[in-house]
Design a protein that fits this description.
Elements lengths: L1 E3 L6 H11 L8 H10 L4 E6 L11 E2 L2 E8 L2 E2 L6 H5 L10 E4 L1 E4 L8 H15 L4 E6 L4 H5 L4 E5 L10 E6 L9 H20 L13
Parallel strand pairs: 6-8
Antiparallel strand pairs: 1-2, 2-4, 3-4, 4-7, 5-6, 8-10, 9-10
Helix pairs in contact: 1-2, 4-6
Bound molecules: coenzyme A.
Length: 215
Amino acid sequence: MLVRHATLDDLDALAAVESACFPPSEAADLDRLANRLETYPDHFWLLVNPVTSDNDCFPAQLDDGMLVSFIDGPVTAQADLTDEMYESPELHNSDAPWQMILGVNTAPMYQHRGCASFLMRQVILDAALAHREGIVLACKEKKLPFYSSFGFVDEGRSESNHSNVAWHQMRLKFNVPEDAPGADLLQASISLAMKETTAYMDHEHTITSQFPQVS
Ligand SMILES: CC(C)(COP(=O)(O)OP(=O)(O)OC[C@H]1O[C@@H](n2cnc3c(N)ncnc32)[C@H](O)[C@@H]1OP(=O)(O)O)[C@@H](O)C(=O)NCCC(=O)NCCS
């Protein structure tokens, strides 16, 4: 698997995965994704399977393989995630302290194999290396345990009312005392991401054993 940032050429594949993952009322449409891509392509993280077969029928083909998962969001001075961030990519400022996450998606045929977790750890590592204060996302209640497993802490109801859903805001802060809630999981996520990044750099263009091939 390869991890890379996005370009406008990836738009159709991103839109295909987005619409396969979310109902129309929640999915970012082509225009919104295009606006985000134009403004912050380096704040899209794509997991790409370079080994595809003629049997792959899911319409998420990229120049370098099949789009498996992606995570995206702006960097903002504002510490809380708001609905405006979904609509207004111009709020992005690459020098600001907070990495927001607006979308976490894995194409259905690749789900439950650890793909989103792998990519999330790369996002966490990149944000830590960029000296961000932390990462903020909004999720539905049933996803709280998934994000808690990386060290994100639930802050209760988000002020976001995106698509008329009750969201929880979750935050992963980097500079916290060792005994703070989630600090041990954060450290584990970063350590694992560092190992995975090294493996990726050593064995570029090979599929790692963590991702069973899809037959
Ligand atoms: C949520 C989503 C991004 C997760 O993607 P994913 O690639 O399946 O995520 P992972 O495989 O890393 O983890 C998902 C679950 O599979 C489990 N898992 C990981 N590897 C596994 C494996 N090899 N075998 C079985 N289960 C596995 C994880 O423990 C996790 O369990 P949990 O849901 O109980 O926490 C994906 O389901 C999706 O796109 N959903 C639709 C969009 C959405 O809801 N996005 C989140 C918005 S908040």
